[in-house]
Amino acid sequence: MSVTKVGVIGASGYTGLELLKILINHPKFQLSYVANSEGNTTLSQLHHSLNKVYECDVLKADIDECASSCELVFLALPHKTAMVYVKPLISKGLKVVDLSADYRLPQDIYEQFYCPHTDTENLSHAVYGLPELFRDELRSAKLVANPGCFPTSAILGVLPFMSRRVKNTPIIVDAKTGVSGAGKKLSDNTHFVNVNDNLFAYNPLMHRHAPEIAQKLGVDFDEVHFVPHLVPLTRGMISSIYIQVNSDFDAYEVLEEFYKEAKHVRVCKNPVDMKSVAGTNFCDIYVKRKSNMLFISSAIDNLMRGASSAAVVNANLMMGFDEDLGIPNIAYVP
Ligand SMILES: NC(=O)C1=CN([C@@H]2O[C@H](COP(=O)(O)OP(=O)(O)OC[C@H]3O[C@@H](n4cnc5c(N)ncnc54)[C@H](OP(=O)(O)O)[C@@H]3O)[C@@H](O)[C@H]2O)C=CC1
Ligand SMILES: CC(=O)N[C@@H](CCC(=O)OP(=O)(O)O)C(=O)O
């Protein structure tokens, strides 16, 4: 059986580790290049959890070595760093799935919320990696901009109801995330003592994921009111979404009809929870209507559907494989 050689740059990070775990077991992707910023180590030294599971060298990231070792590469790198790698990798003919925010937004919006963009050429053809919106485009993409975790949970929740929403009314997204969403670097907010037994909002209404949600839903930034909260959990994310709708309809039926073919969205009859999606690519969605107010609850694993398993689904589509191939679907329950 022919295999596709793939690489992971950013293998020492949280999403990098999740990518490795999926790729080690993937039937058609062969892990052929594994790198971080310093290299000079092995996988088992880097991630003790992979000891006696899979071993390989971890190299200092290098464009030429990466290009000669694989056909497709996953970049699990910080914003701004990712585009420094994308530019030469694409010019050497590699396919790239970028987990950062560098290719998710038009240049003007990106520069308003992040930093100056240094690779506008590739920005123009990058495809936003949400199959529920762009499945056909993803099949022929050379560069995929993997969505942010909060936008994934919010967009999948709201999308089925966009045609029934009262125009120009607020889309309120009240979201909770586990701490792994912040990556492995230390910060005051993610310090154990600040997170443990605690709960707080951060960047209310001005978080960089608000424009991503607005742009992909095709609404104005001012219509999206997004407030993320940090909760004392390692992984998981729930978005509680409130929108006003105008016509009389059965919200559950709308959701079921919209996602009847979706492999990685589950429509739920009871309010969703984080644990039931932990370690999987599922997005679980619940909806409840009271008069013209709709409450939508959408749960994902931030490291999986919000990052790494979504990235492998996108790579499957780019390579013409079944999008479900090698994707974990049994949650870490209990
Ligand atoms: N965590 C999450 O839930 C989600 C994260 N993302 C995005 O995915 C990307 C990765 O996130 P995450 O895994 O959490 O981040 P981490 O901070 O956990 O890991 C970052 C990785 O990038 C590597 N790295 C940093 N700079 C360089 C460089 N110049 N050259 C090579 N490697 C470098 C680090 O290597 P080293 O160890 O050597 O420093 C490390 O492996 C980010 O853009 C993030 O925003 C997207 C959705 C969800
Ligand atoms: C807890 C926490 O800090 N979460 C991150 C979001 C997760 C993420 O990394 O998303 P991007 O891919 O867009 O960077 C944040 O709020 O910025």
TrEMBL record:
Q: Which NCBIfam families match?
A: argC
The biological pathway it contributes to is: Amino-acid biosynthesis; L-arginine biosynthesis; N(2)-acetyl-L-ornithine from L-glutamate: step 3/4
Q: Which gene encodes it?
A: argC
Which protein are we looking at? N-acetyl-gamma-glutamyl-phosphate reductase
Q: Which PROSITE patterns match?
A: ARGC
Q: Lineage, please? A: Bacteria, Pseudomonadati, Campylobacterota, Epsilonproteobacteria, Campylobacterales
The job of this chain, per UniProt, is described as: Catalyzes the NADPH-dependent reduction of N-acetyl-5-glutamyl phosphate to yield N-acetyl-L-glutamate 5-semialdehyde.
The subcellular localization recorded is: Cytoplasm
What's the superkingdom here?
Answer: Bacteria
Listed GO biological process terms? L-arginine biosynthetic process
